[in-house]
Amino acid sequence: MRIRIRDIEFYYNSTKILDGITLEVGEGENLYIIGPNGAGKTTLLKVIARVLEPLKGVVYIDGKDYRLYNPRELAKMISYVDPHVDRSIPSTVYHFLLTARYPHQKSLQIVESEDDVVAIDRVAKAFGIDHLLDRRLDQLSSGELQRVVIARAFVQEPEIVLLDEPSAFLDIRYRMEVLEYVKRFISSSNRVAIVAIHDLYLASLYADRIAVLSNGRIVAVGTPEEVFSSRVIEDVYGVKIELIQINGRYIPIPVETR
Ligand SMILES: Nc1ncnc2c1ncn2[C@@H]1O[C@H](COP(=O)(O)OP(=O)(O)OP(=O)(O)O)[C@@H](O)[C@H]1O
Questions:
Q1: Which GO MF terms are attached to this record (predicted)?
Q2: Dihedral, CA atoms, 69, 73, 79, 82, nearest 10 degrees?
Q3: Is 103 exposed, middle or buried (0-12, 13-18, 19+ CB in 10 A)?
Q4: Residue 55 DSSP label
């Protein structure tokens, strides 16, 4: 699976939000998107998920314009994880996870298949939510709910995972566990992950490449080392950065605002 994003322009009303976005994500790659508040990260993920229609530009999935896939094919292929889940949905965790299997189910299927049960069981264990399957969504803590919502994406077994700020409510162990899982799942297959995140440290740990978005434009793309050792982070965020090296990784530490 490969994604090529070509010259995407997106407007809200008459305001240009994405301005000529061109990016490629290769097989088995974890691409992280960073950038200041309002830079356009969520908008870009929604365009790639086909939740939003760009005014100009095309997204190609495996060389094919994504508008040419039928909705069911696309639903099976792409999972977009919106951080703002409606926890008032009257559903148990199990049934919420099961809804991710719809694209895999046969049209007259009324009960879950063995494959559905196996997928839910495997992912629930990996995300440490197997003890929560009978709980209702409104009975979960914010971090538990977030793990459930991210787990749901993997129950779908998508080729392309789009994660919007996956770490916000998670404690440090779960941040690492969730992103390690994503990295393993993607790297060990020919799948693709695009992760929008504010935490530069987590990006330095888990990104294969990082794209920096600022005012709707990609201003840098490269390995964590390339991106963090350039001046681009200081310029884009307006903060002074010290770079430290631990275990061969380059980790940016913001030390003061400029
Ligand atoms: N529904 C909308 N209608 C109009 N403008 C919008 C809408 N949603 C977002 N915007 C604007 O689009 C721009 C990009 O928003 P977006 O949410 O994509 O940024 P972001 O990089 O994800 O930001 P953050 O880091 O704050 O989550 C912002 O200026 C925002 O105010």
A1: ATP binding; ATP hydrolysis activity
A2: 70
A3: middle
A4: S
Q: Whose CA is nearest to atom 5 of ligand 1?
A: 12
d(CA 33, CA 171): 21
Read off the pTM.
0.94
Residue nearest atom 13 in ligand 1 by C-alpha distance: 38
Mean pLDDT of 67-71: 93
Cβ burial of 179 (10 Å; 0-12, 13-18, 19+) is buried
Please return the burial class of 226, using the count of CB atoms within 10 Å of its CB with bins 0-12, 13-18 and 19+: middle
Domain spans of the chain?
A: 3-257
Q: Which atom of ligand 1 is nearest to 196's Cα? A: 22
Atom 30 of ligand 1, residue of closest alpha carbon: 38
Q: Which residues line ligand 1 (CB under 6 A)?
A: 12, 17, 35, 37-43
Query: What is the 8-class DSSP label of residue 12?
Result: E
Give Cα 236 distance to the centre of its chain.
22
pLDDT tens by residue, 241-256: 999 998 888 899 999 9
**CATH of 3-257 among 3.40.50.1580, 3.30.1490.20, 3.40.50.300, 3.75.10.10:** 3.40.50.300
ipTM over 0.85: yes
Query: For residue 102, is pLDDT > 90?
Result: no
CA 40 – ligand 1 centroid, Å: 6
State residue 106's pLDDT score. 67
